[in-house]
Amino acid sequence: MNWDVFFEVIGYCAAVATTISFLPQAIKCIRTHDTKNISLWMYILFVFGTACWASYGIYKNNLQVTIANIITFVLALVILILKIKNNKKDKAAEKESEQKLEADKK
Residues near 69 by Cβ (< 8 Å), separated by ≥ 6? Predict the structure, then answer.
């Protein structure tokens, strides 16, 4: 048995599995725009990490690492952008609500 080929296949299986495992979360966030239960800092670090892994894969000429992390980076970046937009909307709505309460007190 050629172990190089075996582990090359294992690498592709890992890349496909980990990338596909991220799809349900990405699809749900994109469809619903609901990111309330997602940690902003987790996604900031995750996007950074996938960018680093993609860079590493490019440097090492490792197609599995590169492709899997570029795809995951794009999906995670979309979720991160949605999370940031939702945080801004939530803060604006909270501020507006506080202003209404203050106005009602007067």
Answer: 50, 51, 53, 54, 57
What is the residue-averaged pLDDT of the chain?
91
Q: Where are the domains of the chain?
A: 3-105
Stated pTM of the model: 0.82
Amino acid at the residue 58: I
> What kind of architecture, by CATH, is found in domain 3-105?
Up-down Bundle (1.20)
Render pLDDT for 56-104 as a digit per residue (tens, 0 to 9): 999 999 999 999 999 999 999 999 999 999 999 888 888 888 777 777 7
- The first and second tokens of residue 26, run together, are 């990405």
